[in-house]
Amino acid sequence: MYVLGLAFALGLGAFGATSAQGKVGANAMEGLARNPQARNAMFVPMIVVLALIESLFILTWLIANNIYGKI
To answer: pLDDT tens digits for 38-51?
Structure first.
């Protein structure tokens, strides 16, 4: 049961992270298409948000790895 739960958690974590990163990228490209002068103002916040999304998946992976190590 633990292994199925861990697989489910990692699957949802990966799916959520990739879909959120895709949405951030798509919205950033849409914003740049509407206002190309806003590139410098949008770049750093976009990278920060992408890093935070990735860190959430890494945290999910670490928790699942820790639980799997205790099985």
So the answer is: 888 899 999 999 99
